[in-house]
Design brief:
Blueprint lengths: L1 E5 L4 H14 L11 H12 L4 H22 L5 E7 L5 H10 L4 E8 L2 H9 L7 E5 L5 H11 L4 E5 L3 H4 L2 H11 L5 E7 L3 E2 L2 E2 L1 H11 L2 H13 L7 E9 L7 E9 L3 E5 L2 E5 L4 E9 L2 H10 L2 E8 L5 E8 L1
Parallel strand pairs: 1-4, 2-3, 2-5, 3-4, 5-6
Antiparallel strand pairs: 6-15, 7-8, 9-10, 10-13, 11-12, 14-15
Helix pairs in contact: 2-10, 3-4, 6-8
Length: about 325
């Protein structure tokens, strides 16, 4: 049985939110998944040979899910609401559900800003499991968590896979999660890792990171929200940058910008917006961690790491945690 509940803002409110982001020249990552074109763009990226991050993530989940299950079994709890923040194509969730149903009673609650993404993800869940999807962004997590807890099991397994934490306001997300979780819940985070040599990044790691984003499929995907506002790729160029994050210097970040090539006036939500040549619009940001700073990030926001699972090449990892 599959049900979808919409607690998202109205279409008009979303448009006004996007309008304000255009004015600020900064498009939050959530809008990269908002709509049918955006959904298809992301699914195309997942299949792209240039975007190796996704396949590494699937391998990481597959190879470590027995260890994750064993760690959670030690809690003594055997009934869980599996809440997936940012369902994507649902493949990783399906792997988790397949294994966990062998040891736990489980219900599935995917959350995504996009109805199209939510439908795609739920379609790829082949197991017979009660499923209730929520159209929402992560800011409503605490309300959704309480609603689920009141009507289903008492304990949650919350997942944020695919470096989703690094693509959004990480402290804001963790604060929202903390408000909606109890000490008996588990949080499973997947992030992209960088290999450090002191303060330097290994050259081969740097090349891999940049090439995963500096390709036509990915750049087309992150540009799609601007099409809603009347932009085309011919209006400028996409720039991919990598370096220390301006707000979190211990983190490195991929930043993707659109540089306006000539003066441009667009109309969106009945408002006229003027963009001047060489202005830049932030399209996407993705933080890259090492094990030290992901531990520090979780610790500083009220979580303790129970166990971690690192890929053989050291470029991706999952961290299982509880509230302190």
């Amino acid at each position: 049985m599959k049900t979808i509940i919409n607690i998202q803002l109205s279409q008009k409110e979303l448009e006004n939110d996007f309008l304000e982001c255009l004015r600020n020249r900064e498009i939050p990552s959530r809008f990269s998944y908002w709509g049918k074109k955006e959904t298809f763009g992301w699914l195309k990226v997942c299949k792209s040979k240039d975007y190796g991050v996704y396949d590494k993530g699937v391998d990481l989940v597959t190879s470590n899910i027995p260890k994750i299950s064993k760690c959670i079994q030690k809690s003594g709890h055997h009934e869980f609401n599996f809440i997936s923040l940012g369902v994507g194509n649902g493949i990783k969730d399906s792997i988790i559900i397949e294994f966990f149903l062998q040891n736990f009673e489980m219900k599935y609650f995917p959350i995504d800003i996009s109805l199209d993404m939510l439908n795609e993800g739920m379609e790829n869940i082949r197991q017979n499991i009660k499923t209730v999807g929520f159209i929402s962004d992560f800011r409503h997590f605490s309300d959704i968590s309480e609603l689920i807890r009141q009507n289903h099991y008492k304990n949650h397994l919350v997942s944020i896979l695919g470096n989703t934490l690094g693509n959004f306001g990480q402290v804001e997300i963790l604060n929202s999660l903390r408000r909606g979780m109890t000490k008996d819940d588990f949080l499973l985070i997947e992030v992209t890792l960088r290999k450090d040599a002191g303060s330097k990044i290994h050259g081969e790691n740097l090349t891999d990171i940049i090439e995963s984003y500096n390709n036509e499929d990915y750049k087309s995907f992150v540009f799609t929200p601007l099409i809603k506002a009347g932009f085309s790729l011919e209006d400028g160029i996409i720039e991919v940058e990598y370096g220390p994050n301006q707000y979190y210097p211990k983190l490195s970040s991929i930043e993707i910008w659109f540089r306006i090539g000539k003066d441009k006036t667009v109309n969106y939500a009945d408002q006229e917006l003027v963009f001047k040549k060489d202005e830049r619009i932030m399209l996407y940001v993705s933080h890259k961690y090492n094990q030290e700073n992901i531990h520090a990030l979780l610790d500083g926001n009220g979580f303790k790491v129970c166990d971690c699972y690192i890929s053989k090449d050291g470029l991706s990892g999952m961290f299982l945690s509880n509230l302190k």
